[in-house]
Amino acid sequence: MDLSRLLLVKQNFPDRGIKDIPGEVARQLGASPFASRVKPGGKVAIGVGSRGISNIATIVRAVVQYFQSQGLHPHIFPAMGSHGAATAQGQADVLAHYGIRESTMGCPVISQLDVTPLGKTPEGIEAFMDKTAYDSDGVMLIGRVKWHTDFMGKIESGLFKMMAIGLGKFAGAQRYHTYAYKIGLETVIRSIGRQVLASGKILGGLAVLEDAYHNTAQLTPVLVEEMERKEEELLALVKTWMGKIPVPEIDILILDEIGKNISGAGMDTKVVNRGVHGQYNPWPDTPKIHRIFVRDISSLSYNNAVGFGMADVTTTRLVNRIDWVPTRINSLTASTPAAIRTPIHFPTDRECIETMVPTVGKFDSREVTICRIRNTMELSPVLLSENLLPEIRRNPLLEVVGDARDVEFDSGGNLVEMMANPELAAAH
Fold first, then answer.
1. What is the mean pLDDT of residues 74-84?
2. Torsion of CA 181, 183, 184, 188, to 10 degrees
């Protein structure tokens, strides 16, 4: 099949990366009143989630050192709802995979599933908190503030959601998503979050903001009394930094990998413009994507394939890799069974692409537009088909690197590596 050649394109996003992350954590927390709100020699529970946050181990270690320097006794606990297959060991393994373990953090990492009930919200939703967190003298959360994959609101994914769903462990996550199906996830997050705040256990959090390269760009202490308002402000800011596919419409989007470490939905729905319930192009101001081809699962996802159901086609090798236990638990807890429907699949990348080309309404295969990305966190460089050159030239952020190349397959019929570039690797 004759396809348009591919161009390697660099997106020149603003680089907002913090150079000295431990120093910035120490500076921000040193100017905060967190430690003074815990009794001398008290215990501080530090909640850490399951997302693939850049530099997360460095950030967490610096927070631990801050509390230790104040004469307090911190421990770390997983605040990740049903992730890690909803088991204590699985959640500990997720943290360990990110380098967060007792030996590297200098404090205990306590993973267990017991929760303490916190009463009911005005909507009748019972709230819960990790028992070790509740038994501490104060709870500190470390989380990334960003857009959510399932909905749009003034508060989406961040400290408030971690406080609501993450602290509730599996018991809470199941219940909260059931209510969310009826009244909306933002309403549930705010309602449960306020109930958790009423417990008096939350000190606040350290909000992590990342730029379009997923550099750690801002570390903001958020006090408990301003958490809801402050998170709205931070979300509005970070949305202006968001990286996107740089052309308004794509016929076939190729993702080399998806995974829980990349996005809660496996792929960032607001990059690929899909809904977790199967909707095509539901998000405004987002490029229109007609077909999605997912090639594989990230090695950091423990073969949890949640989100692969949003693809139109995938490989048989991906299907054969799936660990259905965490995949089912994660999807069903979130009330998103469509996100794990098995797409049509073929043994080779070539078959997957050639099957999709005739489905996008173009008689000449050379007119089919293609974009290939590693995953939805890495949006520079990207591969764009040469027939998009007029769009590329209209975007001042884009820079073509090298010459156009044919869509290349190896002897097994699978795509060859085409995004590696020494110049770009040195730059980022």
1. 84
2. -100
